[in-house]
Fold each of these.
Amino acid sequence: MRRAADRLWRGSAARTAVASRARAWHSLAPAATDLPVLLPAATRLARNAAKARRGGGPPLRLTPAHGVVLLAVFAIACGVAQAQAGAGQPSVLATLWKWLPVLLRGFVFNLAISAMAMSTGTLAGLVLGYAQISQVKAVRGVAAFVTHFFRNAPWLVLLFYCMFLLPFQVRVFGMTIPIPDWTKATFGLALPVMANVAEIVRGAVQSIPTAQWESAASLAFNRRQTMWMIILPQCIKRMLPPWMNLYAILTMSTVLTSIVGVAEIMTLTGRALSAENRPGLLLPFYAFVLVLFFLYCYPIARWTLRLEAKYAVDR
Amino acid sequence: MNAEATTTPRPLVSVRDVHKSFGHVEVLKGVSMDVQKGEAICIIGPSGSGKSTLLRCINGLVPINSGTIRVRDFEVQNLKTDHEKIALRKEVSMVFQQYNLFPHKTALDNVMMAPVHVLRENRDEVRTRALALLKKVGLAAKADAYPGELSGGQQQRVAIARALAMRPEVMLFDEITAALDPETIKDVLATVRELANEGMTCMLVTHEMRFAREVASTVYFTDGGVIVESGPPAQLFDRPAKERTRAFLSQVL
C-alpha cells in the first residue's frame, strides 16, 4: 500500500508532496515520545494511521483463507446437525436444498437493497462532498455538519429513525402511493453511505497536491475548470477503492434491515428455522448465509485490489 | 508608443517597493525592478531570500502587502476577482521547480488544455501549435506519453511548452532546474536559452550561475528580502560591489 502510493506518483510533481506528507505522519508519532523503546511502535502506529486515512477507513481485506474457514464451519455444522438428527428426519442438506429458493430470493433482495442504497447514497454523497469543499463558508459548514452527523450515527439507529419517521404512504394528486418497508430501509442505509461518500470525495480532492491548483491557476484556468478538468479526474482513481470498500460494508449491513422487518435473507432464514423447528439446523443455516455473503464480497475485494494495483502504475 | 519611447521604453514589468509577509515573517522588504520587453533577467540569491515569492507575486498567485506591480497594463496589486487575475495570467506564464504537469493527461494534452479551454481557440490550430512546441523542446516523439512515463527533464520541457502555448508576454521560471540531475539540466537550459535569444521576456530564478551569466541582460542578487545588488552579469559576477554579493558568489562559483 505504501509502496503502491509512492509508485503512484513516480516522476511527478506530487511525489515530493506525498513523500513529505508521509514523512510528516512518520515524524508525528515518534516526536510524541522520547523513549527509544517506543519509537518502532510509534512509527508503526503512524504508518497504520496513514494507511487507514488513505484508504478512507481501516483496510478490509478478504482472503481465500476466509472462504476456506467458512466452508469448514459450514461442513462441520452440517456434520454435527446430521449426527443430532433423529430417526426419520430428512438430512440437513436435503432440508437446506428445500429452502434454498427462499433463501436465495432473500439474498437477492439484500443485493437489491445494497445496490439501491449505494447508488442513491453515492449521488447524494457526491453533492455533499462537493459542498464540503465549497468556497462559501456557510455551505461548507452545513455540509460538514451533515456529513459528520450521519457518518458518526450508528447505522441501526438511522434505520430505526427512517422506519418510524417516514410515512407508510404518501398522497400525490389524490393517488395513494404506499412506501413499503424496504424502501424506507434502503433510504435509512443510504444516509450513512452518503456521508461516507462525501468524506471520500473531500479526502480525495484534498489529497491532490496544491501544486496542481497553482499550476492550473498560472495557466489561467478558473476554479470551476480546475476542479472539473484537473482535480476531479485525478480523484476518481483515488476514490474507487474506498468506495468499493464501502460497498462491501454496506452489503454486509443490509442484514440490519431484518431487525426492522424487511423480508431479506436473515428474516427468511429465521422463518425457515422456526418452520422446521429443529435447533440443530441453526448453525448450518447461518453458516450457509455467511458463505453466500463471502461468495458475493470476495470478488469485489479482489477487484478492488486489482484496481488499486492498476492505478498504482500511474499514468 | 508615446513620447517617452524615444528615451527609455516603458518597461513591460515594473515592480516598485513590494513588501510581502507570511504571518510575522517578512519575505519581501521593498523590492523594485524593471524588465523591458524582450529582456531576460535572472534573480539569484540564497534560499529563503524571497526569489520565488517575488515571481509568484508577479502573476498574482501570492497577494502583496504593499507596493505596486505593473505588468503591461495590469496593476497586479489591484486585481481582486478571479476574473481579473485570469486576464493577467493569460499574459504571464509560469514554469515551476516541480514541473506540476497534469498526470492524467498526455504531454500533448497538457500543452493543449489551456489554449483550448481558457483562450477558447480552435482545437485543430492549437494541436498544430502544440506539436510544433513539443518539437521545439525536442519532445515531438513523446506527444502521447503521460508525465509519469517521462524523465524529470522531459517533464520540465513539456511544462515549458505548456506555458509557451498560451503565447504569453512574460515567462516566469521558478528554479526550473533545481529538481533535475546535471545531465538533463543541459537540455532544459538550452530550451530557455533559445527562448531568450528569440526575444521572449523571461524572468528566471536560478542557481545556475554560468547560465545566468550567459543569458541574462541584468542579474539581481537578493538576500533577506531585498535586492542587494544588480547589474549586467559581467559586472555583478566579476566585480561585485557589495561584500554580501562577494561572499555569496565565492560560495557558489
Note: Chain B is about 35% helix and 25% strand.
Amino acid sequence: MIDLPALDRRSMLAGLGALLGVAALPPAALAAPANAARFLPPARFALLSGVADTILPTTDTPGALVAEVPARLDAMLRDWAAPATRDEIIAALDRIDTAARTAKGRSFVALSPEERAEVLRAHDAAALRAAPRADGSKPKLFDPDSVPIDPGYKRLKALVVNLYYYSSTGSEHELRYEHVPGPFEPSIKLTPESRPYLDIARS
Amino acid sequence: MFDAIVIGSGISGGISAKELTERGLKVLVIERGRKIEHGTDYMDSQMPWELPNNNEIPEEELARDYPVQRHCYAVNAATKQFWVKDSEHPYTTPEGRPFNWIRGYHLGGRSIMWGRQSYRLSPMDFEANARDGHGVDWPIRYEDLAPWYSHIEKFIGVAGSKDGLPQLPDGEFLPAWEMTDGEKLFKAAVEEAFAGRKVIMGRNANLSVAQPHHEELGRMSCQNRSICARGCSFGANHSSLSSSLPAAERTGNLTIVTDAIVHSLVQDPVTGRIRSVRVIDAGTKEGRTYEAKVFFLNASAFGSAQILLNSRNEANPRGLCNRSDQVGRNIMDHIYSLVTAGIMPKYPKDSYYHGRRPTGIYIPRYRNVTEDADGFVRGFGYQAGVMRQAGLPDPAVVGIGQTIKDRGRRFGPWVAYMAGFGEMLPHPDNRLTLHETRKDKWGIPLLHIDVQLRENERRMAKQIVADGAAMVKAAGGFVVYQTTEPGTPGLGIHEMGTARMGRDPATSVFNGFNQAHEAANLFCTDGAVMASSGCQNPSLTYMAMSGRAAHNAVEMLREGRL
C-alpha cells in the first residue's frame, strides 16, 4: 500500500523541519524518491506535498507532512477515488499551480513558504465562496446545499484536513483521539489549556 | 431431528435460540449468511489512521455494490463487512417509490450494527389499533409482555432512568448515562415551556455497569467508544454474538449452521404442522432439509414474509399461512430523517464532557398523549442531544495554516439536534410481493417492495419539524438546519408488520402467542408480527416477544399440544 522507507525519509525531514521551526521544506526535500510506488507522478506529488504543507504547516505543532498526509492522500487517490474524483482533485491541485504561476510567475513548489501561503490563502478564499444559486438568489447562511465556486478544491482541502486530524500525529498534537475513553464524564470545567477531543464517525 | 429450528440469528433469533435451549430443547439455528467470530472478526481495535482510506469505502465499490446500503448512517470501511452487497441481493420497487432495505447477512445479523435504543411499547400502543380502527387489534396487551420486557432488559442490559411515564413504561434498568450540562439546560427549558413534554436520558442496550450475569458471558462495561457498529470486543452492547448465542451455546443444546438460505417451509397437508425447512447452501447452491417439532421464524420482517410467500404450493397458492392474504402487507417503518439542529448561544461556554456516550437523550411521545395533534393519529418521539460544536475544523470554512489549527482548538457553541421518529400506520397497500419473473442467484423470487408514506404520516412529519423548531427556540436557541421531508422509507431500519398478529385468522397471520393460525408449530417473533409500530425503536419488543413465545411454545410442546 504505502512505501514505508519513502514515508520515513519524508517524515524525518519534516520532523527536522519542525525541530528547526521551518514552516515548509525546500521542494527538493518534498519530492518523492524516484523509486516510490506513488500514484501521482513526481511533479504532481510534489505539488500535493507543497499544498498539504501549506494548508497545515508545521507551526507550534507538527503539520501535514509529519502526519504523512501527502502519501496517504496519494494512496486514497489510487485506492479510494473514482476516476471522476481523481480528475477533480488533480484539476484542483493544478489550479493552485496555475494560480502560483499567474501571481508569482513560478510553479507553486518553487515558491517560498511565505509565497505559497500568500497564493493559497487567496485561492482558498476565492474557491470556497458559495457559488451563485441556480435561481440567481444569494446563498444563505448555513445552507447545506450551497456549492462552493471550486468544489474540487473543497474536496482536496477536506481530505488534507481529515487525514491530518485522523493521524497519530494530529491526534497527539492537536485534537486528542482516545480510542478507549473509559467512563463518561458529563461535565468538565474548561481551562485555557483544554482541547476538544477528536470525534469519529460514530458507528 | 431437532426439537426446534430457529430461522435467523439476528436480534430476535438469538433470543429465541437462548430461550428455547435454556428450556432443554435441542435447537438448530439456521443463518443465511457467513459465520462471524465475536471479537476476532471485528474492526474495533483499529485506530482511525489504521482504517483503510480514512474509513471510506472506495467510491466505485460503494456505487457498484452498496447503492442502497450506502444511505445508512453506519456504513463505512470499518463496518463494510456487515452490510449486504446490494449487487448480490437485489429487490425491486415501483418506479418513483424507492424503499431502502438496509440489512446484513451474517451470523448475528443486524444485532451487531443496531442502534441499541431500547424502549417498551406502552399500554396505549397495544390499544391504538382498537381505538382508532387502523390495522387490526393487537391480540395481546402491555401486561402480557411486561414481564418479558423485564426478563429481556435484565439479560441484555439496558441503561436508563425511571421516568414514570405512562406512554413509555419504565423497565429493569442499569444506571443511566448522564446528561451534559447543555442537555440539562435544554431539558429544564423544554419541560418548563411545554407542560407534559419530558426530556429523558436515552435508554440503550449498552452495559453502563456490567452485572455478574453479563460478565459470566464474557461481557464488560461500556468504555464509551461509540464505535458499536463495528462489533464490540468488550461485548458491552447486546448482540447475538456477544450475548444471546453464547448463552444458548453454554446449554449444550445449540447447533448453528451458516451459509444456509431458507427457501421454504414444508407443511403437512393433513395436520397443518410444519414438517421441515428447505435450505439452499449459499456456496454450493445444493438443497437439503432439516426437520423439527417446532419452528421459529426470525428471518427479519421481510425475510420471514418472503419465506412464507415462497412456501406456496398447489393447496396454498398465495403462500403458507396466508389465507388472510395479509402476508407481505401492512409494512411499516418509522418516519425518519426529520432533523432539527439549533445553536444554543447562552449555554455555558466553560463546560465540556469526556467520552463518546453511546446514546443521546430522548423526548418521549406527547402528541395525542398530553397534547392534541394537528390532524393526525398516533405520535412521534425524538432522539436528541445537546453537545459542543468542537473537534474537526470544517474545511469548507475559508482559511489555511494556523487559522485551521486555531479553529480546531476552539470550543464552539452548544448545538441541540433532534431527530424525530414517527409512527407509521399499517396500510394494506404498503406491501411486498414475490417478483413474478426475477429470481436471486439461489433461485428464490426477488421481493418487490411497494411502500409509501400517506396522509397521516405527511401531517405528522410537518408537526415533527414544527415542534422541533419550537423546542429549540423555547430552549434559548436558534435553528440553523432543518430537514423538512421525511427520508426514504426503510431508512428508519425498523421495517415491520408483514405477517401481523391478531385475534382473527381471517385478518391476521399469527395469534397472541406468536403462533401461526394455520400451522400450530410455527412461531414468528421478529418484526413481521407487529400489528402497529408505535414510535419506539422496536428491537426490545421483538426480543420480549421471542422470550414469551419460546416459553409458551415449550409449554405447549410439553403438554403435547404441538
Note: The longest helix of chain B spans residues 455-474.
Amino acid sequence: MTASTVQDDVKQFTTELLEATGGIVEWSADGAEGTALAPPPVAAALHVPAESFVLSTQPARGGLNVSLGGEFLDLAGQVLQAAVPRVAAFRIADRYLKKADMAEMVVRTFSWPNARVRVLGAGAAMVEYQTWHFHASLRSEDCFETHVSVSLNGRSLAAIELPDLLEEYDLAPAVETAGDLSALLEQAGRLATSRVMAAAAPFLARLDARLARDLNRLKDYYSALLKEAGAVNRRTKTAPTPEMIGAKREAVQLELRRKQAEVRERYAMTATLTPIAVVRCQLPALAMQLDVTRKRSRREFVVYWNSLLKTLEPLACERCGASMFCVHFTEDEVAPICRGCWNQA
Amino acid sequence: MDALRAPKSAPVGLTDPPADDSIGGPASNLASPGGIPIRVAISPLASCGSAANPAAIRLHLAHTRLMLLRGFDELLCLEGLRGVEHLPHQIETVRKVLRHFRGRVLLADEVGLGKTIEACLLLREYLLRGLIRRVLILVPAPLVSQWREELSEKFGLEFAIPPRTKAAGSPEFWVRNDLVLSSLSFAKLGARAQALAEIPWDLVIVDEAHHCKNRTTKNWQLINSLKRRHMFLLTATPVQNDLVELYNLLTLLEPGHLRTEADFKKQYVRRGNPRDPRHREKLRQLLGEVMIRNTRSLVQMDLPPRYAETIQAEPAGEEQKLHEMVQQFLRERTAEAGVEAKETSDCEENGSEPAGEAGAKRLTRMQLSALLAAQGSHPQALGQAIASYAASEPAAAEIVRQAERIEQSAKDRRLLELIAQSRDHKLLVFANFRRTIRHLQSLLDRAGVAYSTFSGEETAEEKDAAVEALRDRVPVMICSDSGGEGRNLQFADTVINYDLPWNPMRIEQRIGRVHRIGQKQPVFVFNLCTAGSLEARILSLLHEKIRMFELVVGEIGSILGNLEGGEEFDALVLNLWLKSADDKDLEKSFDQLGDSLLSAQAEYLQAKELDEALFGEDYE
C-alpha cells in the first residue's frame, strides 16, 4: 500500500459518503482538490460553513481537509451514523439445491460418537443468514483494535464461512425480514470474540510478558526487603527481636500482595465489540431432519445444506456456540456440545 | 433412511476432527494465556433503519478500515521491506510513537537494538500515509553512507546528499529535494545552516543526537532553528556528562516539557552532583512522555559471545615483489600528479577536467582507494583493477604481468589451513571483489573443499540454493558484501574476512549475518590480511586498540560517531595514506588515528555507564 492509495481511498470514501447523503463531488484533474455540494445538515455535521465547499487532501482554509489526520473521519462517522443505515436485507431467490440422497453426505461430514443417527427427510427452505461486522478493541496498558466479521445461520445459529454476500450477482432486496436482530447479536458477538482473541495473540503475549516482568520486579524488590528484615540497625547497632522480624516480614508480604494485586488490576483488559454493519440475506437451503438417539434419550435436529457453499453446515454447540462437525453429547440428554465443552463437562 | 452409527469400538473423542474445526467459544470469563482477565462487552447495534443497499454497508466498512488505519493498528511500513528483520520491540516502539508521541520522540534504545530501523519504519509509515513529504536526516559524517544505503536498499527511499559545493549554501538545493540526508557537521556550517533554517520540514531525524547536548553549540542551534513538524532524536546515550544535557535534548523536542532550565535544575538535579537526579520517579514519568528506551534486558536480546582473531599472512617472493611494485607505482603517481579531490559520484558536482599530462595521469580518490583495496584483496583483483592503466603506462602493465604470476597467495594458504582446522563449523568467507570470489572458487575447487556461493551475480533461486547447501551439505559459503543480508544464516558460526572493507560499519554488517538474534553458538571471526598492508593497519586499530570485534553490535557506530572531523572512516584512511610519504609516516598517522578512536571510545563508554545508572535496565 502506498501513500497515494491511502489518499485515494480517503477521497473515494469522501465521494461515496457525500453522494450517499445527497451531495455531489467533483475532483480536480490532479486529484489534490475538489468541490462539493452537500445538503445543509450534512454540511453542518462536517463543520463546513456553506453547502458548497472545497475538498482538499492538505489542510485548506474554509474547506474540508480529507485525510487520515485531522477530524474528518470523526465527523464522517457522525454523518454515517445519522444518515446511512447499518443494516441491509437481501434475498437470493433461486439457487441449485442438491437432490441426491443426503444420508451418505451426513455420514462423511459429521461424526456422532456413541450415538445413533437417522436422516428422517429433507426439504427446501428459505433460511436467513446474517453477516455481522464488528469493530473490536482490547484495552489495557496498551490497545489493540481490529475489524472482524462472522456469518451465521439464523436458524441453527452455527457460524458459517460465507463468501461476501454483497458480491453475489443475484442479490435482490428482501421482501420481508422477520426476526429480531438482537436475538442473534449475542451469538455473533460470542463468535467474533473468539476470532478477536486469535487475532490478538501476539498483543496478548506482549502484555503477558510485561505483566510477568512487572510482577518479577515487585518480587525481587520485596524479596530484598525480606532479606533485610533481620539486619542490624545501623544507627542503634541492635539486632531486631524475632517478633520484630516476624512482624516486618508479614508486613512486607502483605504489601507485596497488595502491590501485585494493583499491577494485575492495571493489566486487566476489556474487550469491546461494536457492531458496524449487518447484512441479512435469505438463501435457499436444503433442511435435513435428523433423528439422534443416545442411550435412552432421543432428539430431532435440522442440519442445512448451504446452496452458496454447496456443502453441509456445521451444528452449533448448545453451550458455547462454537461450530462443530464432531458432535458430542452430555451424559444426561441429547444436547450437542463441542469437544471443548465436552472435555469440561 | 439408513441408520448412521459411529463405530461402537471407537472411544468418544477418537474420531474428532482437528481442533480448528471449532469456530467460536465462550465469550465470558476470558483470560490471556498468561492469565490476564479479559472482560468482554458487546455493544448494541446502533441502527438507523434498514435498506437493501450494498453501498451503505460498504461505506460503513470503508470508514472502519480508515479509522483503523488512522489509529496505526495496521502498519503500512512493514509491506515491501527488503531484508529488514524487524523485531517485536521495534514494532511496538513504532506503534507507540505513532499513537502517543505524535511524531516527536527521543529514541534512546540501548546500542544494537535497532534505533535506526525504528526511525526508518516510522519515516516510511509517515510517508506512506501521506502525512509527511519533506524530510531532513542529519547524521554524523561517518554514518552518512550507511544511512543512505539502508534507506535505499531496505526501505526503498532515495535520499539526496548535498553537494560539497557552493550549491549547498543556497536554499535551492534544499527546496528542490524533498528527502535530504546530510552530515550534521556539513549542514551546520556557513550559509547552509541559514538556508536549512528558512525551509519548512515535515520531519527531521537526528542520529547520534547527543552531539546536540549543548545549547551553546552550532549543532544544537541548527536543530533548534529548523522549522519542523515532527522530530526523532536518536541516541543510546542521551546523558553524557550531566542531566542538563538531557534537558537540552528534550527542549529541542518539546520546548517547555521540562519547564525552564532553572526549574529543571531545582526540581531534578542534585546540587553538587549534576549526574545524580532528584525525584527520580517523577523525572522518569516526564521522560516517558517524550522518550522511549528499550534495553536488552527488557527485550530479552542477549547474544552469545563472539571471538575474533587476526591472521597475518607474510607475503614472500613474487608476491612480496608485487606489493612493492604497486606501492611504488601509486606513490610515484600521486606524488607526480596528485589526486583529484572531486569525485565523479552523483553526490558531487562535476568540476572541469584537469588539463595537461599531469591531469591525465591524476587519479581520483575513488580510483586510488579502489586500487589500494584491490591490493589488499588478492593479486588477481589487483591485476584486473590496474589493467585499465596498462595500455598507457608500462609500470602498470608490468604489475599486471607480475600479478598473473601468482597462483596462490600467502592469504590463500592461511585460508586453506583455517578451513582444514574448522571441521564441524559452517563458514562464511567474505570477499569484496568479484575477481577475488572467482579466484576463491577455483582455489577451493583445487583443494577439494565443497562450497556454495552467494553474491550479486547469482539469481534469487541460486541464492536460495546456496543457503540451503550451506545448511545441509557444504561447510563453506563464499559471500560478497551483499551476501545473505536479511537471510537466516544463524546456523553458521564462523566468519572469515578474506579481505577487509575499510569502513568498520561494513565489517560489522558482515559479522551481523551470523551474530544476530537466533544465534545460539559463540561466533568466531577470522580476519585475514597481508602483513604490512593498509588492511593490517586498520585491523590493528580496530582489533587491538578498541577491541571492535568484541563490542556489542552497534557500538562501533556510536564510537565512530564520536570521532571528531567530518569524514567517513574509509576517507580518513585514504587521507592518512595520501599524507604519508612512506610506511613510517603512515604508521605514525595510524597511531594518531588510534588515539582519536580510543578517546571516542572512552567518551562513549563513560556516557553509556552514566545512562545505564540513570535509566536502569528496565526503563520503559
Note: The mean pLDDT of chain A is 86.
Amino acid sequence: MDFSLNEFQDMLADSVGKFVDNEYPFSTRQANADSEAGFGAETWASFCELGWTALPFSEADGGLDGSPLETMLLMQQFGRGLVVEPYLANIVLAGGVLRRLANDAQKQRWLQPIIEGQLQAALAIAEPQNRYDFAALETRASPDGDDWVIKGKKSVVFNGGNAELLIIPARTDGISLFAVASDNPGIRVQRYRTVDGSSAADVTFNDARVGGDALLGDAGSGLETLTTVIDEATLAVCAEAVGIMQALTDKTVEYCKNRVQFGVPIGSFQALQHRMVDMLTATEQSHSLLLWATMAYAGGTEEAQRAIHAIKYQVGTAGKLVGQEAIQLHGGMGMSWEVDVGHYFKRLTVISQILGNADWHLDHLVD
Amino acid sequence: MHVSYSPEELAFRDEVRTFFQTEIPQEILDKQAQHVALDAENQVRFQKILYEKGWIAPNWPVEYGGTGWSLVQKHIFDTEMASANMPYIIPFGLGMVGPVIYTFGDDAQKQRFLPDILQSNVWWCQGYSEPGSGSDLASLKTRADRDGDEYVVNGTKVWTTLAQYADWIFCLVRTSSDVARKQEGISFLLIDMQSPGVSVKPIITIDGSHEVNEVHLENVRVPVANLVGEEGKGWTYGKVLLQHERTGTAGVARTQYRLRRLRAQTKKSVRGAAPLGEDRNFMRKIAAVEVELKALEYTELRTLAAVSSGKAPGAESSILKLKGTQLQQAVDELYLEAAGYYALPYVPEQYALGFPKEDRIGAGTETDSAPRYFNFRKASIYGGSNEIQKNIVAKHVLGL
C-alpha cells in the first residue's frame, strides 16, 4: 500500500495543474464552450503538444502507456479547471475501445489521428430505452454480404455532434462494436448543447450501411470491451468530480472569508462554518474513495468492481451536497451565469446523471 | 500508488491473525462473543498479553516501547484486532497520558510512569470535563494552589470514564487565574487516586450501565514532581492528547467488522422469519454505510501516511472523529432496526457467562442492540463534541 506518486505521475499532475491555473482561466473556458464546436481547437492542440491525448495509449501505438492512475490525476485537475474539452469522449471512451479492438488498418485510420489531435470521436453508450443498463441495447446490425446494416437510435452521445468517428455498440449475435464515419448517409445527427455547456447529439441510424472493415474486434464479442471502457470512464468522471468538489469547497471558503454582511465576513458565522466543514468532509471522503477505487482497478484486485460502484455512488451523493451548498453559500452570486461556481455545479450535476446515478450504483452494492 | 500488500506484509498479517486466534484466553473470547462486559481483571489480563508480545503500544516511539511498525503494519494490526473481535485497549494510559509524558515529561516521570502504563500495572483515568466546563473546556475551575512542594487541588471532574477502577488520574487544573486568555494558567497534573480527599461517585447512563463518574477533589495534596512540563502550559499538552484521541476514535476497523457481521446475519432466518437480506431497503442502508466506511478507511490511511512522513496529527484528525463516530452510530442504528421487537426487552442480567441458554430472551445478542445504541450516543459528544470538531476544522483547516 502506497499513496506516493512516481516521478512521471508527479510531473503530469503538476503540468496539468499549472495549465488549468495559468492557461485556462474561466473566461477561456466559457469562450471555448460558446464556440461553434463547443470546445477550444487551440486548447485541444495544446493538450496534444503536452502529450495528454497520447496518455493512455501503448508505446507501440505512439502513446505514453499511462494507466488509469495517470488518467485520474489528469481528470482531477481538469475538474478543478472545469475543462470543457472532450477528453472523456475522445481519449477515454472512443480511444479506450480503439486501443483494445482496432486492427492495424483501423488504428491507422482512426486511432493515430485521435492521438495526434486531428480527429474527433465519440462512443455511443445510451439509447432511449436503456437508461443506465448499457448492455440492454436495441440498435441492431444485420449482416448483408460483406456489409452490415445498422438500425436504431443512440441518445445523448457526448461529442456526438463534432465526431467524425462514431463508435456504435449494436446487437448482432451478441453485442458488436462498429467504427462508423459520421458522414454516412444513413445517419441523422441532431446536435445540441448539454446543460454544462458541452456538446452532444442524438444519433439515428436508418439502415446505415457500413463495410466489413467497420467491425471492431470479433462479431458478437464487444460487450467485455464496452464494459471495461465504461468502468474506466466512470473512474475518470469521478476523478473529474473530485477535482470539481475541491474547487467548489476552496471557492466557497474564499468567498465566505471576503463577503461582508452585518459588518463581518459571513465566514465568521458558525452556521455557515459547519456547512463548509461538511463540504470539506464530503470532498475528502470522495477523494479517499477515488484513490482506493482507482488503485484497486489499476491493480486488478477482486474488489475493483465494487469499488467502481462505490465511488460513483459517493460522487453522486457527495457531489450533490457540495454543489448545492456552494450555490447556497454564494447566495445570489451562486445563481449568476457570470460567476464560475454555478457552472461547476452544473458539471457535477451532469456527472451524477451519467454512467449510472447514485441509486443505480448503490443497488449494485446491495448483494 | 498501489493498494496491494507485499509478501512481508502478508506474512505479518498472518502472524497477527494467528496470535489473536491462539493466544487469547477462552474466557475473554466468550465474553466478547456474548457481549459480556469485560471485568477489570480480564481487561488487564488481555493488555498484559499484548505487552508480553511487545504489541501493546504500536504508536509509541520505539525508545519508549513502541513497535516501530510502518503505517501499513499498524493498519493491518488494527484490522486484525477488530476482525478477531478483541477487547478495546483502554486508551487513558496507553493512548493519552503516556504520549503526553514521553513528549513533555521529565526523565524521572518517564521512568516512574511509562513502564507501568506499558504493562497495564496502573489504571489511568482522564480528568478533563467539569460540571461547568464541557465544550468550553478552557473555562475549567478546578484549582491547584501551590503550597511549598505540593499543590492543593480543589474541584470536581465529571464524565470520568472507568474512574471506579483507576489508580491514577491525569487532570487539567487551573494554577493561575491572572491570565489574558483562559487557555493560559492551566496545568497538567498527575494525581494518585488513593490520595486523601479524592472521592468517586458513579453516574449511570441511559443504557443503565456504570461507565462514567464524578470525581471530587477536596484539598488533595499533590507533589510538584507530578506536574508534567511547565506550569501554565497544560492546555497545549492537553490539545496534543486530544488529537491523538481523535485519530484513535475513528474506529473504522471495528465498525467495519460489526457491519460485516450484520451483513452476514441478514442472510439467515431468525425465528422462522424471512431473512432480513430480502428487505432491499435495509440492505441499501447497509451498502451506503459500507461505502462511507471504506472512504473513511482511506481518509485515515491518508492521514497516517502524512503523519508517517513527518507531519504531526493535525486538525484533520477532527474529520476522522466526526465521520468515525457518525458511522459508528449509523451501524448501531442498523443493529437496532434489525432487531425489531427484540430490541425492546431490557435484560442486562442475561449478559453474563453461564446464563442458561434456554432462558435467554431474543436471538443472539439482539436485546443488546438498544442499550448499545443508547450508550453510543456518547460517541458524538466525548473527546470534544462533533460541533466542537467542526469549529476546529473551520478554524484550523479552512482558516475561517
Note: Chain B has a mean pLDDT of 93.
